Amino acid sequence: MISRYVKKSRSAIHSYLNNPLYYGKKKSTGIPRKVTSRDERNIIRVVSNSPKSLNDVRAELNLSV
């Protein structure tokens, strides 16, 4: 048996042989973020020490949020 040589369970070998491209990958859970980490850094850079309104920041950075 293959499972004895590679020291993995039979079910792990079976799931790998059924779909080797997706073996060991997890589905992403939850809702994806609306703002990327790069956008978040840009927002912080623009807003810090400035009296800009939310609409000004949104227009300057071309954000849809």
TrEMBL record:
GO cellular component labels: nucleus
Signal peptide range: none
Main location: nucleus
Record-linked InterPro entries: Homeodomain-like_sf (IPR009057), Tnp_Tc3-like_HTH (IPR048703), WH-like_DNA-bd_sf (IPR036388)
Cell compartment(s), UniProt: Nucleus
A Pfam family of this chain: HTH_Tnp_Tc3_2_like
Superkingdom assignment: Eukaryota
Boundaries of every Transposable element Tc3 transposase-like DNA-binding HTH domain copy: 38-65
Name of the molecule in the record: Transposable element Tc3 transposase-like DNA-binding HTH domain-containing protein
